[in-house]
Amino acid sequence: MSTGEVRRSSGVLVAEFIAKQGEGGKFTKLQMNEAVPNYSQTDRRMRDLRQLGWVIDNYKVNPTLKPDEYLVQKIGVRIDLGEKPLKPLRKSVGGAKRRRILERDGQMCVVCGVPAGQPFPDVPERRAILTIGHIIPFARGGTDDESNLRAECQRCGDESRDNTVDPPTPEFVLTRARNVGGRKEKERLAKWMLAGRKSPDDTELVFLDWCRLPHADRLRVMQEFSLQVLSTDDK
Ligand SMILES: [Zn+2]
After folding, report:
1. Predicted local confidence at residue 2, as pLDDT
2. What DSSP designation does 168 have?
3. Quick one: pLDDT at residue 166?
4. How far is CA 147 from the centre of its chain?
5. From the CA of 3, how far away is ligand 1's center (Å)?
């Protein structure tokens, strides 16, 4: 059984449950979890539905709702009835604006630093496709203003971010930044903060080049590096 199968069927169950409430209907998380038993990622499935034109309010966008309550504003593509969208209904930023932002952000993903068209360091068979993403997500009221837009790869983009989780507080981020290991790592982090992006450092650039070598050459370089460099360079 593939995970794709599991996802499809749970997504369909969530869609079916929410469609049953009707537009204007309210439901609680508990009710949904009872309707979709043995499944814990209902938040993610609701996020998927939002990409398909479903508008489901929570207490963050609608203060009249209780924290565990949801209001169905609009029913989108009925995947529970077998409807299929030709393409996602997300608004995308294009044209000159898109080019300006890619240029401004150095043609690389602001979040993970992968350059456009380059392989991902951890998944060398996949290459980065840059999209324009929202810093404050669209679903949380972020605008298409250039100050709210940035270059993101397909892995770090809006679609892959869980917008149902609250953003971190400044205190939380500062505490974690304090706990980053070692002076060198802290300086690296400060540099990224200053640049407003995670620019790849020398180590990462070397690794990206290594990823582009054929398999046999990769093995050779890895072995020589381990044997000759790592074993002698132990300062
Ligand atoms: Zn990325």
Report:
1. 41
2. P
3. 66
4. 19
5. 23
